[in-house]
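for the recovery benchmark. tokens below, seq after
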């Protein structure tokens, strides 16, 4: 026998409450979900698995430069379509599309400011802009960054994330490999430090040029780093590749990297390295 009886119907609401889009983010390696705010507070690194989500120049500049303050260089250099290239769509239309989509004019930004009170020049690529591909503007802006660092004797940091050369600019894109490498040779002659930070992914002509020419070559955990992709290499050589091939950890084990540093420790690590080479450690 029941002593209690429901008098009213279940409580109902007129509107169904929807979860705001993007509040929870899925971690690709674990399948778990993490609150967006928790990721933002941890520089877009999953606190449990350590998975590093890809971020761009806006985020890197915000935590590497003191209080996120910097002076931008080379922003007046903008891309054009000298070859009138067209595949599925016109290159000029594609440029316009990505400029609207990302808010950037091309795939790299350059800033100069202070990092833990050290004067530095930082160039950071944006993968969201046509896969971080290296075209004429990327090469020119990197050239400006290298020249500025050399002339003002400020250490240079280049943060790479790229699918390689920009095919829509043909040989003009490939020329940037030699151009940036030559300018880095001048930087070395001037004894100005250069740190190359490779993130996920760093491939193609970027890896084959400036990304591997640092006085220190470092990477974020789990980054894909290489020239051609694993699938292309596997088809070319006709055999399976070693486990972990082209990951930052594999490259470190085989001597291609100096060290791997989590993003949450990156600013402190970069500062420590620069103080060592600049002899600026306090007694």
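predicted aa per position
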């Amino acid at each position: 026998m029941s002593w209690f009886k429901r008098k009213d119907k279940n409580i109902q609401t007129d509107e169904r409450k929807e979860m705001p889009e993007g509040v929870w983010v899925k971690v690709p390696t674990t399948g778990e979900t993490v609150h967006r705010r928790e990721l933002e507070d941890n520089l877009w690194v999953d606190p449990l698995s350590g998975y590093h989500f890809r971020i761009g120049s806006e985020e890197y500049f915000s935590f590497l430069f003191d209080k996120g303050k910097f002076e931008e260089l080379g922003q007046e250099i903008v891309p054009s379509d000298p070859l009138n290239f067209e595949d599925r769509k016109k290159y000029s239309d594609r440029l316009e599309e990505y400029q609207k989509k990302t808010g950037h004019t091309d795939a790299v930004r350059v800033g100069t400011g202070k990092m833990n009170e050290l004067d530095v020049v930082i160039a950071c690529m944006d993968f969201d802009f046509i896969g971080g591909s290296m075209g004429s503007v990327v090469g020119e802006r990197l050239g400006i960054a290298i020249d500025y660092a050399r002339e003002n004797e400020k250490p240079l940091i280049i943060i790479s994330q790229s699918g390689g050369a920009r095919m829509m600019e043909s040989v003009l894109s490939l020329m940037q490999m030699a151009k940036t490498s030559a300018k880095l040779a001048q930087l070395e002659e001037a004894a100005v430090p250069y740190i190359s930070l490779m993130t996920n992914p760093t491939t193609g002509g970027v890896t084959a040029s400036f990304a591997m020419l640092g006085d220190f070559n470092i990477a974020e955990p789990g980054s894909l780093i290489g020239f051609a992709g694993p699938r292309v290499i596997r088809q070319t050589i006709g055999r399976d590749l070693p486990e972990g091939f082209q990951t930052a950890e594999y490259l470190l084990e085989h001597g291609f990297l100096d060290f791997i540093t989590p993003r949450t420790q990156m600013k402190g690590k970069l500062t420590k390295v620069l103080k060592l080479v600049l002899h600026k450690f306090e007694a």
